[in-house]
């Protein structure tokens, strides 16, 4: 249950991204600065935490061993994940972005064949290519169906152009985030903790953010004070707290694709938290009856996902006794 709890808590902080990014867009801020400033502001917070743990030099040593892997997968996991999400905020409300983002539940499961899992055979552990966890995928599809119900009433309010410019970037992000996160877990080999990995990926993705900064200066000029402050809040809540919690949760189950899929499925709660945030901060209308049906689908799917995962853990423990 601990990985599931950490995942749900992470989704609460992640939800602030969708609400605040939309808030900044409504106020006239550029999506470029929403993306860039978050990762710039994350560095001092993370550096302080890792410094207090006396892990800075150990992290530098790990990056030096595989610098190109850090650069590539950090850019995929952070750059190609967050920049498209911020771009999407310019073309759709927070509920649409949070809802469409749940496609990552399926994306993460479909990526399983690209990775190897450690399986015990006899007295030794061997690496076996991952398989798509169809049972987990079934529960994930159930959750996704709930998300569709939650958004079905709102879809008619969005133009086709806005829908395309909002959905396509999120589809890219939905594959980039789990791909970059899982590849970095392979690169790190469990030698560093979640905060060190988060700091290392943030630093390694800086070349991408520098390029985007140059684009932003020519396209939109310097960011406003309000957007800077709000980006700082997003960096702390979503960039530091949420990502560290999510990394900690995935680290606990990184060798089991079914359990890993269950943790990634907890991010469906972002829809609920984002909806609540929009109602409170942006005066969004309350959910309709159909939306509440969707909420029941999401919660029911999560309970089934968690139950199946814990049942498997208990079975494995009984066999090992």
UniProtKB/TrEMBL annotation:
Provide the alphabetized UniProt keywords: Membrane, Transmembrane, Transmembrane helix
Transmembrane spans = 31-50, 70-90, 96-116, 136-152, 158-177, 198-218, 230-253, 265-283
- Taxonomically, the superkingdom here is Bacteria
Which InterPro entries is this protein grouped with?
A: EmrE (IPR032713)
Q: Could you tell me what this protein is called?
A: Multidrug resistance efflux transporter family protein
Organism the protein comes from: Priestia filamentosa
